[in-house]
Amino acid sequence: MKILLIEDDFNIISFLKRGLIEDGHFVQTSQDGEEGEYLACINVYDLIILDWMLPKKDGIEVLKSLRKKDIFTLIIMLTAKSEIDDKVLGLDNGADDYLAKPFSYKELIARAQALYRRSLSQGKNEIIIDDLVIDLNQKSVKINEKNISLTLKESQLLLFLIKHKNTMVSKGMIEEQLWNNEEFINSNVIQVTIYNLRKKIGKELIKSFRGLGYKIEI
Predict the structure, then answer these.
(1) What is the Cα–Cα distance from 16 to 27, expressed in whole angstroms?
(2) 26-30/146-148 β-pairing
(3) Which of 135, 122, 130 is nearest to 201 (CA)?
(4) Which end of the chain is more exposed for a tag (fewer CB within 10 A), N or C?
């Protein structure tokens, strides 16, 4: 997942960022509400982890503003507030989940992955496209009931294309999502990843549009 962490506590940022990166996620951070909202508006994320108490603009204000702008990225709110009314306030204003501090990293990542799975599969544990079956819990891929082995990048790319099904996905969007523009990548690595993925799941599923990008049509 590509994750935006909006949190003003440096220790929490360091702790979460390290864990998320080790688990294979890409993370951008902001330490105030105004900058965090700006990043959420100009970039595409799979998840926003949003602290309630922030400088410049608090989390609830950021949440309300993003939803008014029709930005429906998954949002988990972090807060020291544990009262029921506060939880209700966050959820009523568009938060997808709520976690009170202190919290465990394991619980946060489990909630994040559960939300992400539901966003991909409309609440089901499987994504089925013709003969292709992706089990989101078991992280397995099958074609005609035969297991297919995908690399991490191939799996991430497949899920990214499925999430944006019926929409043209450019090379730049793939590079930002899978490599986060933080490391040099060979100019043809995306084409190679697409080529290898097509060999494994079939050429027909991922459509290529020269000079424009790629698309899964469902």
Answers:
(1) 9
(2) unpaired
(3) 130
(4) C
Contact between 170 and 212 (Cβ < 8 Å):
yes
> What is the Cα–Cα distance from 32 to 185, expressed in whole angstroms?
31
Q: Residue 87 has which token pair? A: 């939880």
pLDDT digits (tens, 9 = 90+) for 135-150: 877 778 888 888 888 8
Listed in order, strand segments (DSSP E) in the chain are 2-6, 26-30, 47-51, 74-79, 97-100, 126-129, 132-135, 140-143, 146-148, 206-209, 213-216
Tokens of 184: 């040099």
90's tokens: 């966050």
Residue with tokens 């290529």: 208
Contacts of 195 (CB under 8 A, 6+ apart): none
* DSSP 8-state code for residue 160: H
The CA distances from residue 40 to 74, 103, 110, 112, 140, in Å, are: 11, 24, 22, 17, 31
For the chain, give percent helix, strand, coil, nearest 5. Answer: 45, 20, 35
What torsion do the CA atoms of 174, 24, 142, 201 make, to the nearest 10 degrees? 30
CA end-to-end span of the chain, whole Å? 22
Q: 38-83, pLDDT tens digit by residue?
A: 999 888 888 999 998 899 999 899 999 999 888 888 999 988 766 6
In order of 99, 129, 162, 185, 216, the CA distances from 209 in angstroms are: 42, 21, 16, 22, 11
